[in-house]
Amino acid sequence: MPRKTDAGNPRDWLHLAGPDLDAVQTLVERQVAFPVCCSKLAEALEKLLKAQLIAHGWRLRKVHDLQVLREDLEGHVPQQAEALRAVVDELYRSPLPGL
User: Fold this and answer.
1) Has residue 99 been placed in a domain?
2) Range of 48's domain?
3) What are the backbone angles phi and psi of residue 95, rounded to the nearest 5°?
4) How far apart are CA 78 and CA 26, in angstroms?
């Protein structure tokens, strides 16, 4: 039975990101298509960003845009937001529609 999660708990977001990161590792090891890796990485990064934001007092809202989440992080942890800028920008340049 899946573990019950609380969207307001940063630890639960980290728990949810774990399988996505495991999937990315497996996809890379098996040399699966690059767009699939980017998609899974984006899903994991979204969850990690939300965990960090919630841990710093951000009020959870329904947003999946990594650039918006990174910009929100600038108001809470500017150093981390800046460190993630290149990753988020690269994922936006990836050949995935709607990412």
Assistant:
1) no
2) 10-93
3) -80, 40
4) 31
**Stretch 50-71: mean pLDDT:** 93
Secondary structure, 3-state, the chain: CCCCCCCCCHHHHHHHHHHHHHHHHHHHHCCCCHHHHHHHHHHHHHHHHHHHHHHCCCCCCCCCCHHHHHHHHHCCCHHHHHHHHHHHHHHHHCCCCCC
- Cα separation, 41 vs 46, whole angstroms: 9
Residue 99 clears pLDDT 80, i.e. is over it: no
Residue 48 lies in a domain: yes
* Position 1 in a domain: no
Residue 32 token pair: 């699966």
State the chain's mean pLDDT as an integer.
Answer: 86
> Is residue 89 in some structural domain?
yes
CA 16 to chain centre: 10
The tally of domains found in the chain comes to: 1
Structure tokens at 43: 């899903």
